[in-house]
Amino acid sequence: MNDNYVPCLLCKSDSHTEVESHFGDPYRASNSITRTVICNQCGLIYSNPQPGLEQLEQLYSGSYGGQRTNVPDRFYISRKDYDASLRIDFIKRVLPSLKPGRALEIGAGAGNQLYALKSLGWDVEGVEPTPGYASFAREKFEVEVIEGYFDKNIYEPESFDLIIMAEVLEHFPDPVDLLNSLHGILKPEGYIYIDVPNVLRPNRFRLKEYLHGDHLTFFSPKTFKLAIEFSGYSIVEHKWHYYQYALLEKSKSKKQIDFVIEGDNPLEVLKVLKRPRFYLVATFIKRSARNLIIRLLGPSLGAKSLRKGAHLRNFFRGW
Ligand SMILES: [Zn+2]
After folding, report:
1. Which residues, in sequence order, are CB contacts of 7 under 8 Å at separation 6+?
2. What is the pLDDT of residue 315?
3. Less Cβ around it within 10 Å: N or C end of the chain?
4. C-alpha of residue 198 to centroid of ligand 1, in Å
């Protein structure tokens, strides 16, 4: 299936240790292996081999199983609305004087985040490869979302005040290349918001389920920070628990990264991944309760940033 073996996506070392491998991943073609390795130099965890372009296109067209279907369901919309309000709270807290401007979301999903920003006065646009999600965003949320993959060449230079990549960076075959490509379209004083999972706090009991096939990189706080600094950005704020949340701005000077000193110790990371995850019992209960509340209350729960949910409640009346 045209799988590609790749060197470390951060430090380019070819030396790595296998963490886990399995067949039959719901996000991959059935005859394809999903193999995750850890770089022996910088400690980055990444999928190796990576799925080829053809596989990625099939995945994001909604052809594979897992949770990814071609049309968002109501629960997905409610959950993403909740997530969108948390992100807006984070951005407002870190950058209280940030005025609405022009925002781009890469991997816009069904459009919840763009809709939330639009409601706050932002001029928004997005790009999303899954056709049913892109059309949902356009039709239901009335936000401009291009169906397809991100292409920096279609945007005017230095045209965005804010670029959002929520649960997206880990899906790209080359996250550093993606971050580098954003310099040209981000305004000099612009910001990038990113969230990615934290591999040192896996939120699944079984490693095989955590290291699933649509995620191609698994960042720890250290390797995430390296990827950011290596791409010429500096961190305004970076918080983490199961997920990592960060706001970035362009660096004034490009930092030289020493991967050996600043990366993770692979043996320590492997120890963390193999440790029993008792904390997940409490997390499971908390997440189930949250999901139940989201199901019962629908989108109004997450809309506290959006005039106490009026927008989304009105929106759902007609759906
Ligand atoms: Zn490396």
Report:
1. 13, 14
2. 46
3. C
4. 17
**Whether pLDDT at 63 is above 70:** no
CATH number (domain holding residue 182):
3.40.50.150
Is 19 among the domain residues? no
For residue 49, whether the previous peptide bond is cis, meaning omega lies within 30 degrees of 0, is yes
pLDDT digits (tens, 9 = 90+) for 28-53: 888 889 999 999 999 999 999 999 88
State the Cα–Cα distance between residues 225 and 222, nearest whole angstrom. Answer: 5
d(CA 285, CA 303): 23
Residue 310 belongs to a domain: yes
Q: Give the distance (Å) from ligand 1 centre to CA of residue 21.
A: 19
User: Does the residue 259 lie in any domain?
Assistant: yes
Q: How far is the CA of 267 from the centre of ligand 1 (A)?
A: 14
Domain that holds residue 238: 52-315
Burial of 88 (0-12, 13-18, 19+ CB in 10 A): buried
CB 160 within 8 A of CB 103: yes
Tokens representing 247 are 């706001």
Of all residues in the chain, the percent with pLDDT exceeding 70 is 90
Q: What is the pLDDT of residues 132-167, one digit of tens each?
A: 999 999 998 999 999 999 999 999 999 999 999 999
Distance 52 CA to ligand 1 centre (A): 21
d(CA 298, CA 316): 9
Considering its fold, how many domains does the chain have in total? 1
Tell whether 40 is covered by a domain.
Answer: no
Q: Ligand 1 centre from 57 Cα, in Å?
A: 27
91: left (phi over 0), alpha (psi -120 to 50) or beta: alpha
Q: Name the pLDDT band for 308 (thresholds 50, 70, 90).
A: very low
Q: In angstroms, rounded to a whole number, what is the distance separating the alpha carbons of residues 261 and 247?
A: 24
pTM score: 0.91
Q: How far is the CA of 245 from the centre of ligand 1 (A)?
A: 22
3 CA distance to ligand 1 middle (Å): 20
